[in-house]
Specification:
By secondary structure, the protein is α/β, with parallel strands linked by helices. The protein has helices at 15-18, 45-51, 68-80, 95-112, 143-146, 164-172, 190-194, 215-222, 224-227, 229-236, 301-310, 326-334, 346-354, 365-373, 394-407, and strands spanning 25-30, 35-40, 57-62, 87-92, 121-122, 127-130, 133-139, 151-156, 174-182, 200-205, 252-254, 263-269, 276-284, 287-296, 319-321, 339-341, 358-361, 376-378, 384-388.
Length: 417
Amino acid sequence: MPKLIPENADPHISRETSRLTRGIKAAEELVTVGVEKSVDIGTTVVYHYLDNSTKEITILQGGARSGKTVNTLIWFCIKLMSEEDKILSICRASLPTIRGTILRDFKDVMLKLGAWDDNRFNQTQLTYEFGSNLVEFISTDQPQKIRGRKRNYLYMNEANEIEKESAMQLILRTTEKTVLDFNPSDEEGWFYDWAEKPEADFYITTYKDNPFLEETLVKRIESMQQADDNYWRVFGLGLRGVSLHKIFTHWKPVGRFPEDCEDIVYGVDFGFNAPSAVVKVGFKDGKIFAHEVIYEKNLTTADLMVRMETEGIFKDDMLYCDAAAAESIEELMRGGWNANKADKDVLEGIRKIKSMPLYVTDFSVNFMSELRGYCWKLDKNGVPLDVPVKYKDHLIDACRYAVFTHSKSDQLDWFVI
């Protein structure tokens, strides 16, 4: 089978040195999947770690854009090319995150390997027939699949989003190899405990281990050094986070959005290269209920309108939108939507949300991830400032627009502390 080993596997190599890993070859007839061609594909130290692992479990802790996901997928795909009758389960916390992230990455890797065949992909079951092997995409909101049949291989992507019980059920039903990866933004978690087990090996990677990153992304990650020490620690250095200055600590998960809310509105944060975010916000008995509706990149305003209709949002529903995006708001209004400029007072908006119990639906995986990592900036002495770190806050901004702006309307007699 093709063997991909970086020219320099030292995890502490400089970014300049790591560029030597470009152009690594995987050249062989891929008879298993019916492909006969030479393949050029680049790998990082993550692939090397997996290919040399002798343990049942490999744990990949890493910062932003360290190449964990893509290289794990490359390793599994290359492995399956020389095997038969194996089952690989690729798991995330929810189906929307599977469709929007890991499934796209898997298809992209398979295309680069020259191995993708549309006829082998079952869109309904989210399975791919890889020769005589089966790749299945499952989420932890599918209990029948978690407790279902055994598998040979398991890949838990963003394992910090997966509950411990679900993870244990998946691992117990895996007979050969488990790989899990995560950004270490949580202070505590079952995944840290597993790193200490004798049957597991554990690696930390950072953006410096990924020679294929665009310079603009490198600069964006390195700018966190000036923005916030903890963000730099987690997303830059790939180290376990310290959450002494988290902004929202009072929120709780809830199974479903209540049907009997006293009022329902929507917050909209526009994006394109960054995700567009839409949050459904309900008010009931002095509590806030929030549900992630849309979190997706590369959406024009026209695309967003189509997506909102698809998600069951009506044109006369109240939308509170980022006031800085005047042209997008105007486009929504011309399309018949009840789009309104939101009050963008960040500090007062945060205070409003903190003044009320906040419940977030289990479906809202990206929203919960933002809430876990949303922190105050610190001054040079480590004292929190009244300014949040501007990073991964699109759904939070959308929620804030809805909660704070709507609370100021004549319909509600609430106060801002």
